[in-house]
Amino acid sequence: MPTVPILMPQLGESIAEATVIRLEIAVGDEVRADQEIIEVETNKAAMGVTTICNGIVSEIRAKEGESYTVGTILGMLEVTAEEVARTGADTLESIEAKHTAEAEASAQEAADQNLHFAVDDADAYVESPAIEPTIKGLPVPTGTLGAHYISPRMRARMDDLGLREADISAVAGTGAGGRVTVEDLEKFIDYLEAWPSTKASSMRLSVADAMRRSWTRPLATVGRPAVLDNVLNHRRNCTPKPGLTLYMLRAFAIAIADHPTDAGYLIGNKVVHPRSVDIGVAVQIDDGVVVPVVREADKKTLPELLAEYNDLVDRARRRRLEENDCRGGIATVTNFGTFGLTLGTPIPLPNETLILGIGAGVKKPVWSNEVETFIPATVADLYLTFDHRVIDGGGAGEFLTRVSELLQTPDAL
After folding, report:
1. Is the pLDDT assigned to residue 341 strictly greater than 80?
2. How far apart are CA 101 and CA 387, in angstroms?
3. Which among 77, 194, 215, 278 is least surrounded, fewest beta carbons within 10 Å?
4. What is the pTM of this model?
């Protein structure tokens, strides 16, 4: 009988691999076309791998907890010739023949063009000569060399290990000017081998990569209190009741629509304004955060946004977001007050200029001009982290004050 491989599918145009989190089949199981047989996790959501045709599982190569690139064979199905003809499924034999033909064509093309890329390993990388410091015991910068210089050989080894410059900041360098060498890195890795460790999930690696890229900009944070009593009273009279984060998101969107340059991007000598006020909402899930995006939040009222918002948050928690659900946000709102935190400095995503953080509401005495005395009120501190190249502290403070003012008239949201 023909054998049809179960391949890791392309789960999104920017997704190169996924991690198997659950196998829902066993060898000998009979499966039908389009049946979900393997659950995988990408850096954005959990998805299902389905079969292309009817058949019997003859082999399972995938292992739970392991990551596989797109196109990797996860298992095998035994199918009938009639089923192959009906579905047009590629058999293992036809795939291997195709790969062989492509390899031969590539080799022939290289030969025809007389391309020779072979490099002797001994000469592949040339280390710069060590330079003795002029004052013994003190590292001396030597032109372009120094602690921040990374040689091509070092860069190649870091790429092999999936490391970035921030990851080697703890490595003591013995090279010229305090430079970290490959030997230094290898000793550090060997040293860490004896430490307890756990494998980072795809979600954790995605968050780490985004934060590394975000921190290449000059980010700053300002904060101010916001009285929440009007919002809480408004919420009590709503059915269904909007979450506090949605009130914040709506006020945030209106403030951005009023001052779009505050959420703009500095590109060369221009500040590019957002084309649409699409606001992300940070949702905490196991070992990470996902940020689904609420579209045109400035143009929809609170009741109009409620169903869309609840659906996005629900699917985010169940890891059932689609790739487009997380695209195109210009700013994010994150409510870390749900964890009892009153202070925070959230970091915007690399493609965003602003992020609004919400602290936990606490009872505080607030001065009332009406009765000319202090009265108890629920107050939450708001924090705005921003790209300091685009706006300054004064502008960020005015923006945050505008958000606080909008929260005092929840009926208008």
Report:
1. yes
2. 51
3. 194
4. 0.68
